[in-house]
Design brief:
It is built from 5 helices and 11 strands, in the order ββαααβββββααββββ. It is an alpha+beta fold. The strands form 3 sheets. It has a 5-stranded mixed β-sheet, with helices on one face. A 4-stranded antiparallel β-sheet has the order 7-10-9-8. The protein has a two-stranded antiparallel sheet with strand order 3-4.
């Protein structure tokens, strides 16, 4: 998988050339905060959102969660503009019957995830899902109804990293399929870098971002990654 990284400032993205999104690539937008969220910064960036979306952000009690929700929405705005949608309108972001967000009148898919101080948003012409989880100590036995016996054996043998690798893979798969938690995670069994669900093959790429595991799922076996690190 090829990879290229670029750093972009939110207040300058309209000066950046339009992205020509190919069928065999995705763009990963990533923001990682410094762990010290500021109410004034939150207030400033909230003004970019329409009232309804402001309320979606403010419903969270923790400041970190407000930050993550806000910057995820701004990444959609930023990515959409860079993909050629100069007349971007937040009202075009809607959800399907399973709650998966998409943008009407567009030819791309996107998906968002966040954990800790990191937000990720991925754009692709393929159906795509992403999940990121901060690595913390956890009792594996509480999840024996989520993993197959083979997966549990791998986790018990390899430890915490393997747990989060498999967990994020499963989550990214059900997000790519678009049916969310209506699909029991036990129905998604990971075999190395892919899984099969209802005769469809889904390919999964996993990697670490600081102390977090991240997985991305698409239907494309070989896909180029283009990373954009966002500065707010």
């Amino acid at each position: 998988m090829q990879n290229s990284i670029q750093y972009l400032a939110f207040n300058d993205f309209k000066s950046i050339p339009i992205i020509d999104l190919k069928e065999d690539e995705y763009y990963l937008f990533q923001y990682s905060g410094d762990g010290n969220p500021d109410q004034d910064i939150l207030k400033y960036y909230l003004e970019f959102l329409p009232p309804k979306m402001k309320q979606e952000v403010l419903k969270y009690r923790k400041l970190d969660d407000k930050y993550n929700c806000l910057f995820g929405k701004l990444m959609i705005c930023m990515g959409s503009y860079m993909l050629g949608y100069n007349s971007f309108d937040f009202e075009k972001i809607i959800k399907d019957n399973y709650g998966k967000p998409y943008m009407s009148e567009s030819n791309f898919n996107f998906n968002i995830s966040h954990s800790g101080n990191t937000v990720v948003c991925v754009f692709s012409k393929q159906e795509i899902g992403i999940d990121i989880e901060e690595i913390n100590e956890i009792d594996y036995s509480l999840f024996d109804n989520v993993f197959s016996s083979r997966e549990l054996a791998e986790i018990n043998n390899e430890g915490l990293d393997k747990f989060y690798e498999l967990w994020t893979k499963k989550e990214s798969v059900i997000k790519a399929i678009g049916k969310g938690m209506s699909i029991p995670l036990t129905e998604i069994e990971i075999d190395r870098g892919y899984t099969t669900y209802e005769d469809d093959i889904w390919y999964i790429k996993s990697f670490k971002i600081d102390n977090k595991y991240c997985s991305i799922t698409t239907k494309c076996d070989v896909i180029k990654a283009r990373e954009k690190h966002i500065l707010f």
